[in-house]
């Protein structure tokens, strides 16, 4: 049985969607952990779901980064365990310094709620095994998803293959029109240098069965069952 | 001693500020000759510290650890003790740092 922790901060709203998504994957059990007493011992993977933690006050994800759950998450990530943050979860991981860069207000200043395409640029994360080059269709819903970092950091991310997802059109071309928020180089998701921590703005948990309009999120989340070696470290291909 | 810090947080000049761009467009539509607009926020914090140096250090910590994200933002602050704050000497005791 693969045990997945779903972190809940005040204002998190996607943890139950993740719980439903993982319930469709055989041999996975989940637990929702309140941020004040999150103990990640005994879990094989951790999810930082989307929402509006602390009402997005100060900056999206800024206050969550000093929560006890984030301290536990930092230890968990340091141990090499698989971590995935989506939407506000991605913002929290960036604010906490577990991922590089930051997420700014969308260039359009509009909240974008839509279906978009992303191309998988790297399979060197536990979550994207077997998906390199695949174009996935997923929903987004965010007002602050414009990924930025200084030019040296962007160059280093590209060089080291830390750009995991890029916004593209349905055919896989990273065009200006396919970029919903103005992210640098159409970046939709990045991983840390080790590869075990992944953040992305789209919502894999909202496209896990035909009823929801798509199943590409299932292809990402189902990797969780093979994500951890018996030795306790995340698997990379 | 009680201190009051006024912390100004702004996005770094090389980082795009879409809100500033929208305001720039709006000001121009009023017929005003405006070349650039940058937005930010002001945070006022009241707290106790032993002396001015300790208070200053505390504000620096607030800024770097939480109030500003160094990837995209920078901050400056003015600091005054409550006794000074009420008189005209406010600006002479103000510390400004990046």
Which descriptors apply to this entry?
heterodimer; A: 237 residues; alpha/beta; Rossmann fold; two-stranded antiparallel ribbon; 11 strands; globular; B: 98 residues; alpha+beta; Mth169, Chain: A; three-stranded antiparallel β-sheet; 4 helices; 37% helix; disordered C terminus
Give, in order, the helices and strands of chain B. Answer: EHEHEHH
Q: What is the CATH architecture term of chain B?
A: 2-Layer Sandwich
Largest sheet, spatial ordering of strands of chain B: 2-1-3
Widest beta sheet: strand line-up of chain A? 2-1-3-4-11-10-9-6-7
Shape verdict of chain A: globular
Briefly note the structural class of the backbone of chain A: alpha/beta
If you had to describe this structure to a student in words, what would you say it looks like?
Chain A has about 240 residues and is of the alpha/beta class. Chain A has one domain (about 1-225): 3-Layer(aba) Sandwich (Rossmann fold), CATH 3.40.50.880. Chain A is built from five helices and eleven strands. In chain A, the strands form two sheets. In chain A, strands 2-1-3-4-11-10-9-6-7 form a nine-stranded mixed beta sheet, with helices on both faces. Chain A has a two-stranded antiparallel sheet with strand order 5-8. Chain A is globular and about 45 Å long. The model of chain A has no long low-confidence stretch (mean pLDDT about 95). Chain B has a single domain, classed as Mth169, Chain: A. Chain B is built from four helices and three strands. Residues about 85-98 of chain B have low confidence and may be disordered. The two termini of chain B are about 25 Å apart. Chain B has a three-stranded antiparallel beta sheet with strand order 2-1-3. Chain B has helices spanning about 20-30, 50-65, 80-85, 90-95; strands at about 1-10, 40-50, 75-80. Chain B is α+β, with helices and mostly antiparallel strands and about 100 residues long. Chain B is elongated, with a radius of gyration of 16 Å.
């Amino acid at each position: 049985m693969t045990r997945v922790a779903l972190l809940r901060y005040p204002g998190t709203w996607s943890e139950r969607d993740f719980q439903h998504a993982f319930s469709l994957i055989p041999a996975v059990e989940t637990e929702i952990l309140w941020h004040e007493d999150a103990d990640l011992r005994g879990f094989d993977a951790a999810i930082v779901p989307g929402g509006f933690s602390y009402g997005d006050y100060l900056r999206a994800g800024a206050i969550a980064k000093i929560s006890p759950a984030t301290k536990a998450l930092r230890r968990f990530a340091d141990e090499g365990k698989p971590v995935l943050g989506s939407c506000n979860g991605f913002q929290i991981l960036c604010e906490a310094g577990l991922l590089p860069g930051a997420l700014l207000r969308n260039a359009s200043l509009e909240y974008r709620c839509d279906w978009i395409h992303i191309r998988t640029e790297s399979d060197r994360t536990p979550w994207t095994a077997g998906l390199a080059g695949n174009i996935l269709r997923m929903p987004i819903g965010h007002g602050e998803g414009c990924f930025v970092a200084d030019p040296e950091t962007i160059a280093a991310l590209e060089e080291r293959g830390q750009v995991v997802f890029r916004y593209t059109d349905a055919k896989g071309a990273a065009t200006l029109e396919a970029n919903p928020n103005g992210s640098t180089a159409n970046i939709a998701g990045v991983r840390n240098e080790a590869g075990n921590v992944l953040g992305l703005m789209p919502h894999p948990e909202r496209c896990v069965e035909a009823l929801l309009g798509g199943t590409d999120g299932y292809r990402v989340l189902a990797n969780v069952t093979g994500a951890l070696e018996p030795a306790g470290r995340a698997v990379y291909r | 001693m009680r201190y009051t810090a006024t912390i100004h947080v702004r996005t770094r000049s090389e980082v795009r500020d879409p809100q500033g761009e929208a305001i720039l467009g709006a000001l121009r539509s009023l017929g005003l000759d405006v070349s650039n607009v940058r937005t930010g926020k002001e945070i006022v914090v009241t707290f106790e510290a032993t002396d001015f140096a300790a208070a200053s250090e505390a504000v620096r910590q607030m800024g770097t650890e939480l109030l500003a994200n160094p990837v995209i933002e920078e901050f400056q602050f003015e600091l005054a003790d409550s006794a000074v704050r009420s008189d005209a000497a406010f600006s002479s005791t103000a510390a400004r740092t990046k």
